[in-house]
Amino acid sequence: MKEEEIVIDIQELKKSFGDNEVLKGMNLQLHRKENLVILGKSGTGKSVLIKCIVKLIEPDEGRLRVLDQEVKDLEADEELNKLRRRVGFLFQGGALYDSMSVRENLRFPLERLSDKPSRDEMEDRVYEALRSVGLEKAIDKMPAELSGGMKKRIALARTLILKPAIVLYDEPTTGLDPATSKEISQLILEMQQEYDISSIIITHDMACARITSNKMKVIRNGVFKYKGTYDELREKNDPWLRDFFE
Amino acid sequence: MKIAESLPESFQRFFINVAGIGRFTKQFFRQVFKPPFEFREILNQAYRLGYDSLFLVGITGFIIGMVMTLQTKPTLEQFGAESWLPSMVSVSIIREIGPVLTALICAGKVGSGIGAELGSMKVSEQIDAMTVSGANAFNYLVVTRVIATTITVPILVYYADAISLVGSYVGVNIEGNVSPSLFYKQSLDILVFSDIVPATIKTLFFGFAIGIVGCYKGATADKGTLGVGSAANSAVVISSLMIFVIDLIAVQLTQLFIR
Ligand SMILES: Nc1ncnc2c1ncn2[C@@H]1O[C@H](COP(=O)(O)OP(=O)(O)OP(=O)(O)O)[C@@H](O)[C@H]1O
Ligand SMILES: [Mg+2]
């Protein structure tokens, strides 16, 4: 495989909710083993964009290829689920299953694989995932007993347990203190390096963007208005853009 | 389009609900025979829903059985037909009061519980999280709960019927003396096939309605905590209404086919 391989290819993607035009022709390419940070004000459609990638939301127009498959054409549940297992999604609020313990949360996706691993193997994978986020001791806790930062990390472990090729992070550090934010950002970087994961990271947190990004794109008025590396964007003399960095 | 828009909002909502529940029911029957079968979760839900309602259903059944007996007794005495008391009470309980009352209690307790649970899962994106992990969320959340209520409600109805008869026995014996064996002979002998089977079949539908409406309202809850509350609330309202409609249809059908 070439290093430069494109894993997500989005062209002229459009989505409206009623009169509310949210995405007005988005273009984006994510390369293999790349961390792409997406920046944008609240309500500009960042979450909508990455939900389109896993078909939680159906776009109105445009092309959307993920891992060489046209997402629109995946009608059968089986094919779609196969793709979804290769694309991890970290939700803005973590979305841990409240009625299940941490162990059950992590086992849930494994138990629903068509070639379900054995009990022991599942237990091993649960521990491995928890170890990678440094929270083995929380295995028997319920989500209600965890702090915000722990929830995010457990959610990250649950996302990684299927060993996805791509991970979509929706504001992984919002609502956390700076120290914990930094830990999570570094975790994201480690995941990229250790497991060769390509990711899209949505964030308002510039420290997170600086640590994790290889490339950045900024949404304004429903399209990507700026792109470049963290340093390139910081040097730009656009007052609108400056607001993010201050 | 125009006609629909000119209707009052409550009518529009009514038709939206009818269409949505219809769609949900269709999806249920498409998914229910498809693997993976979540047997463990079905049992888990059935146990939880049933166990949670035992006390409330039991105590209501007991009181209703007793009150009905005490209320009917003076009337029957006037005609000197006191010995008919147990049979009269048992027929009305088993045909009508037991099933409808139990179903309404379950609509209030179980239906609202399902609506609130799925509603908060929807709002906090837990359902989306299941979906994107490649699991079939409809299968895991909706199919299991609907099967669970469809099994559990009839069982709870039998249980309520039995306890009502105990209540009725106590009622008969407050002023009077009827031996248990005579009481049960009088109250059960009168029951025939056409009392029990239609009553059981309709309770299956009650259970199904409670499950499907609770899940539908939960899974379509609006964002925000307000959405969860109103999902739970309208789950109760709609499923109670459906229980009466099903009951009405059941009466008509029973009369058409059996009598
Ligand atoms: N399911 C939906 N139905 C209707 N409108 C929606 C839906 N999802 C999102 N929207 C609208 O799309 C717009 C973009 O929402 P989105 O959640 O993508 O914002 P965001 O960029 O992620 O913001 P934030 O940083 O606050 O998370 C908002 O105006 C929102 O109201
Ligand atoms: Mg968002």
Structural write-up:
The complex is a heterodimer of chains A (246) and B (259). Chain A is of the alpha/beta class and 246 residues long. Chain A has two domains: 166 residues, P-loop containing nucleotide triphosphate hydrolases (Rossmann fold, 3-Layer(aba) Sandwich), CATH 3.40.50; 66 residues, no CATH class. Chain A is built from nine helices and ten strands. A six-stranded mixed β-sheet of chain A has the order 6-7-8-3-9-10, sandwiched between helices. Chain A has a four-stranded antiparallel β-sheet with strand order 2-1-4-5, with helices on one face. In chain A, helix 6 runs parallel beside helix 7. Chain B has one domain. In chain B, 86% of the residues lie in helices and 0% in strands. Chain B is built from nine helices and no strands.
Based on the model shown, name its key terms:
A: 246 residues; alpha/beta; Rossmann fold; 2 domains; four-stranded antiparallel beta sheet; 9 helices; 38% helix; B: mainly alpha; 86% helix; binds adenosine-5'-triphosphate
How do you describe this structure in short?
Chain A: One of its GO terms (molecular function) is ATP binding. Chain A is α/β, with parallel strands linked by helices.
